[in-house]
Amino acid sequence: MADYDFDVLIIGSGPGGYVAAIRAAQLGLKTACAESRETLGGTCLNVGCIPSKALLHASELFDEAAHGTLAKWGVKTSGIEVDLDAMHGSRKEAVKGLTQGIEFLFKKNKVEWLKGRASFESADTVKVGDRTVRAKNIVIATGSSVTPLPGVTVDRERIVDSTGALELAQVPKKMVVIGGGVIGLELGSVWRRLGAEVTVVEFLDQILPGFDGDVRKEANKIFKKQGFEFKLSTKVTKAERKGDIVTLTVEPAAGGAAEMIEADVVLVSIGRRPNTEDLALDKAGVQTNQRGQIETDHDFRTKVPGVWAIGDVIPGPMLAHKAEDEGIAVAENIAGLTGIVNHDVIPSVVYTMPEIAGVGLTEEQAKEHGEVKIGKFPMLANSRAKTNRETDGFVKVIADAKTDRVLGVWIIASVGGTMIAQAAQAMEFGATSEDIAYTCHAHPTHSEALKEAAMAVTGKPIHI
Ligand code: FAD
Ligand code: NAI
Questions:
Q1: pLDDT (tens digit, 9 = 90+) per residue, 39-57?
Q2: Whose CA is nearest to atom 7 of ligand 1?
Q3: Where does the FAD/NAD(P)-binding domain start and stop, copy by copy (predicted)?
Q4: Is the peptide bond before 51 cis (omega within 30 degrees of 0)?
Q5: 74 C-alpha vs ligand 1 centroid, how far in Å?
């Protein structure tokens, strides 16, 4: 490789970047990964997927103990209290273990970690801290950051983004969440379970954009039952902090009379935007689209030879598993193999209780393509869910009316995030609803609800 320092340099060590680095090294390529954070793993491991799931798990355990769920099972508890320091301790331990795990995997696979912020000098040369390196292939995997909301400045104390909401030192009395998407509902759930009153202000007329319409409506009902308050079709125009209180000015999204809401903590969660600004992309000749994303072809090549991009920085859902699969595929493509990601089958999960999961098309999208058949099955009629008192939710299977091929599966169920893997696999193999209906499912499991929803596509479930 003549005067190149590396065959592959990856910028960013999130789920996209670190997976690409490991796979490239496994394929025999001399690989480095530039990361400016003090620990590897990107948003997901440091301030995203993992710490949020640690707090979701801890708060769920508290909720079960404090609000009578355990007692109903004959598990008596008394003197239940939140020890927030211990919860944060567990969160940090989870993050530390996993980020160090990536460091270990880098050493094991001989991936060199270039510590520092990377920026392009040219299409094959990158400056990382005070070192300049040349690489035959460069993969941009710089991820995304919180989208700011004009008029509502994050102060990391009372007005926080997701990172701040993972680190609150006290349970808020009143929390206002701006944005009824995935972060708002997951982190809103954490603090509601621990005792906060939570109001979600959402610009659109329903929460969870991108999810199936039935799922959005049902999720709204379930969260309301759990004590969430929703202000839909509403926008926040201003936030003013006086001492410990933040006053938000809100208006109907379509315009109208303003109203004030007070909170002691405000979470801004209106989406994320790609990290492309500090890379000096112009020096490499790489352009971004109107949303700041780097566009690639199906193989993750940008328009500049030798420069590739994956993960949150390119179009598509901003999800860790999508970034990981793209990481594997890009490394394989660089090595001359055929790396493919089927972007039509990327599952999406909201890790609330119950979990909300989906893969493929929503009913609304599927109907735009042609006639569909729908099968639905309520968790209330699933023996395991009923026994466990986890009866909220349903499974919905959407199939092509002519071919019976499954086009989408949507699940609200306590273990929906686990159940959706089966649906994704079936769809990857081009399954029909009949294929799922005739697959033997272990009893008693929540997954039987997927089988019955598939049976319902042609009108013959057993248990309803
Ligand atoms: P990132 O993980 O963002 O990593 C990019 C890395 O690049 C960062 O470490 C950054 O420091 C580094 N970097 C950026 N610029 C430079 C530079 N110039 N030089 C050097 N390094 C640089 N997704 C899920 O699938 N499941 C979940 O449960 C989930 N939960 C989430 C919870 C929260 C609170 C948040 C915020 C996100 C969550 N996500 C979840 C989304 C998930 O974190 C992202 O989709 C995923 O991390 C994207 O991976 P990535 O590799 O593209 O980028
Ligand atoms: P999101 O896109 O999921 O939701 C943002 C919400 O804010 C939308 O409902 C939108 O309509 C609303 N909104 C936008 N502007 C608004 C305004 N001015 N006022 C009120 N509401 C407004 O984004 P979120 O929740 O910030 O998450 C960012 C990304 O992180 C998501 O794309 C998601 O993919 C990823 N993520 C994934 C998780 C998972 O897979 N479990 C968990 C957390 C984040």
A1: 999 999 999 999 999 999 9
A2: 12
A3: 6-327
A4: no
A5: 42
